[in-house]
């Protein structure tokens, strides 16, 4: 038996490859399925089953394409109702894979079709669970996402999750390995550990949601406390996972079309496409296509695209580093953005050489910023980090306008007075700057290096806060 976790950091997502006696099961595959097919082929094995733990909200799974390419059936748990052919497993139903067995344990609560898959070894001993979003390391799946589909409140879903954990998962032996669908950084939970594999015994000791003496009322309160609104693209990803989607090869063919500067400009004007610049933030600051949005590939790319571009059907035109076009299109497709129409051939340099207008972002070092604050302690400063980061430590009198909800704060930025914007390291503040400039707000200066550089420059900070945010 071979079990491999295939972890994708930018999505904080774990897919799984299980092989026994030449037969393979894939659990929660990513959109691009060739790596799974090639791995099985290399091992002279055949993909026999594709298991889905639930209808994912934060990424588009590759189950439909993988089934089409391999002929392997897709398996969901009870109460799933996909629009395509699939096996809807019964609670406790067993699937033989070589000389091991995979058992479907219905564990509703995160969603009503959520199912944990229990792997038994050749001797019938419980070996591991693939818990999807039912159980994370250090947390459990949020119970607020499936309210509409289930016609239940988040409290009712939390109560259901409590029962699932205590009747299906906690009775399992302590040495059972836990393989979750997500780790730290995912918006599907609140307190996830940075580790991606653990034993159930350790989780029983340290995961607040698995406390043996915890009442259902206590569980509901703790699980629902502090939940932030989910990203707007989540329901759209659920719809795609439930109803199907374009083949990834079609998406790549469409999205990797090279467009000259003139053709690129024409496409932007005629289609209403967003120009998405995925280079490094420093390059974007030096020059970019006017009104383009910056979200760099070398950051939390896909989740930020999903959080800030509300509609997955939004046409997109790319400005990307040489050799990273296919990567950008692929990573967009992972969160359902399939309407990439092409990229700027020759990159931003070609745009400049063609004599096209371009814009820049004023950016200063933390040392220069410090001198400005010393000269004028009323200088407006906007901190686009999350509220928790801001509460922990921030520049005195800085306003917190979290990037996730930036559009809700547009009226709070000065119309004429120069203001400064920063985040933790420079990535998010450049995203914010690009959004503000696209809305016609140009009187801003970015603090390069963010809060890390601010502290290194010995700019005074405080940990006291009188909350000013709406979220």
TrEMBL record:
Keywords: Hydrolase, Metal-binding. CDD domains: POD-like_MBL-fold, RHOD. Residues 269-360, 375-463 form the Rhodanese domain. GO terms for biological process: glutathione metabolic process; hydrogen sulfide metabolic process. InterPro entries: Metallo-B-lactamas, Mito_Persulfide_Diox, POD-like_MBL-fold, Rhodanese-like_dom, Rhodanese-like_dom_sf, RibonucZ/Hydroxyglut_hydro. One of its GO terms (molecular function) is sulfur dioxygenase activity. PANTHER family: PERSULFIDE DIOXYGENASE ETHE1, PERSULFIDE DIOXYGENASE ETHE1, MITOCHONDRIAL. This is Glyoxylase-like metal-dependent hydrolase (Beta-lactamase superfamily II). It comes from Aquimarina brevivitae.
